[in-house]
Amino acid sequence: MTVSFLLSPEQEQLKAAARAFADEHLRDLAAAVRAEPDPLRRAQLARPVFEKAVGQGFLKGLIPAPVGGAASSGVDAAIFIEEWAVHSPDFVISMAGPLIALAPVYEAGTPEQVARFVAPFLADAGAPVAAMAFSEPEGSANFDAPTGTRTTAVPDGDHFVVNGRKAWASHLSGWDGDGPDVMTIVCRAPGGVSLLVAEREHLAGHVEVEEHYDLPGLRGCLTSRVRLHDVRVPRANLLGAEGQGPALTRNAFLPSGASIGTFAVAAMRGAFEIAHRFATTETRGGPSPIIDHQSVADVLADAKGKIEAVRLLAWRALDAVMAQHPAAPELALHSKVVGSETGVEVLNALVKMVGVTAYDDRYPIVEYLHEALAYPVIEGSNIGVRRRQLQELLRAPGYDPLAASGMS
Ligand SMILES: Cc1cc2nc3c(=O)[nH]c(=O)nc-3n(C[C@H](O)[C@H](O)[C@H](O)COP(=O)(O)OP(=O)(O)OC[C@H]3O[C@@H](n4cnc5c(N)ncnc54)[C@H](O)[C@@H]3O)c2cc1C
């Protein structure tokens, strides 16, 4: 097998198409989102752009080819996520719901379930959204503990009746408050923590929005706290067996976890461009541009090296996840933890290097820092979830430190 880090002609095309879409639509969307104070109206600004992205086949790019989508490789996904996330990471996160919510469908769904739940996302029309309803307002790091998942699914004939509160997941409310097209619900059934897929017809009228969060970063994401009231979901929508929820849930967050490295790269890349421009053009009253100070050049050099390193880690992690390689869990966790924490560290260093002008709108590095601060805590916080998962891997009997790299 040949390993090459050069983009293929097809990947160059994908990058150009993603960049053109971002230039045409996402710059303006990001500016409009910044100007809108209301979280619901802000999120709804994305809908027309969302419909254009779906119409151009970008949503299909997140659905695996074997189930009818167009996702080809992890590197392809990384390229398009980076090109969009540098302008509007909130838009990408909103659109990427199927990446998490449908992952357990691919893993444990019957062929009939897969066909039914994936169908809205293959239509190339409209603005279909999916939510992975895992997080709860009282916390979710210990969701597999006896009291860790409070949402219940009570059997009633050939249905389950679901009640409980869910929080944070993008598009829990859908665009109009009647729920997303598909909601994968982590709930407690008689057989233990389980996953049920509710479709819009089950959710409409049974989702009460308690609050749309007004986020400090990723402000265009529609994340809400909702109460699910007597949502009747057919037993035929249970994924796998009752009690299979913990393993399916952990695996569901692998693709999005791996992608966090790419989101962090996008934030660092955007901020680096600003900081580099500043350092090479601004003298701040001295005799020459500030890059001539060794300490300033060191900050830029360290930042650039870290960006390159995290980009490659994220490519490798997404590639392993999409190929369902045994190294995927470990690489995805490193991409999440190392990527997100490097992002915050680099952004913080660049803010200090630029100095007070980082607080000036024309050099909006602090905006990138707001996005980067979210990455250690979303998709499973590093402390509460991701480092614990790494600990499990490291403690497993027979752990091989060379396996993830293929160098055993
Ligand atoms: C923009 C955005 C999008 C999101 N998308 C989704 C989504 O699609 N679906 C979804 O379900 N959620 C989503 N979330 C929520 C997100 O995934 C959180 O990471 C998740 O709710 C878990 O939160 P937490 O790890 O902070 O857990 P919490 O249970 O809130 O724990 C809080 C803290 O307590 C400590 N802690 C708790 N238990 C332990 C322990 N056993 N060991 C060590 N430390 C512990 C840790 O420091 C942890 O960070 C989103 C959030 C945002 C902001």
Automatic annotation (TrEMBL):
Location of the Acyl-CoA dehydrogenase/oxidase N-terminal domain: 8-122
Top-level taxon of the source organism: Bacteria
One Pfam match: Acyl-CoA_dh_1
Location of the Acyl-CoA dehydrogenase/oxidase C-terminal domain: 244-382
Cofactor: FAD
Keywords tagged on the record: FAD, Flavoprotein
Recorded family membership: Belongs to the acyl-CoA dehydrogenase family.
Protein name listed in UniProt: Acyl-CoA dehydrogenase
Taxonomic source organism: Actinomycetospora chlora
Lineage: Bacteria, Bacillati, Actinomycetota, Actinomycetes, Pseudonocardiales
